[in-house]
Amino acid sequence: MIVSLIKKYILPKEIDFLAALDEHAMIIKQITDDLQKCFIEANEKSCQAILHDQHQAQAIRDKNMKNLLNVFITPIDSESIYRVITELDWIAISIRHFLIEAKSYHIHKENEVYNALIKKIQLQAELLTAGFKTLKSNREKTAQSTKRVRDTYDELMDIYVEEVSTLVESKDIKKIFIHKELLSQLKEISKRMRMTANSLEDVIMKMS
To answer: What is the pTM for the complete model shown?
Structure first.
């Protein structure tokens, strides 16, 4: 009884931010899965779910930021936690923006290149989720996951460069503009995944 009262009223508040970041990463994985079903499989329910999932990600981001501002004890420095929160948030926003623009250009299930790039982004999200899940129990596995996120980004860049080099040979200026814009957005999403992986590695180092 006394111990519980001390914890409640005297000891500084402590929040499991690592679990909170894990939850945030899982939402990002859901959004990338919805992107694949929406854009490649033309599943309109998944298209609508992206907006819902992004709102979930925003709610989690806001909750984590509020906790970060009000808590006294964190497992690592607050700047590292803040960096991961904002990077995960940017991924969700970027995916939503890509989908809005793709729909405005009436681009849907365009070709296998989009499919390949989105699958690479899905894999990066899966690896990030795995990395956050093992952060407490096995940091070596987390480091392996972050390395694979970076490797997947390099693989995506190979596909991206090849497609853009083919695209610029077209005489259709409208086609070049639209697809270069959308391909660049997918590249940016993947880049943000890589940046999040780098920040996750920073967390590993600070927990060691």
So the answer is: 0.85
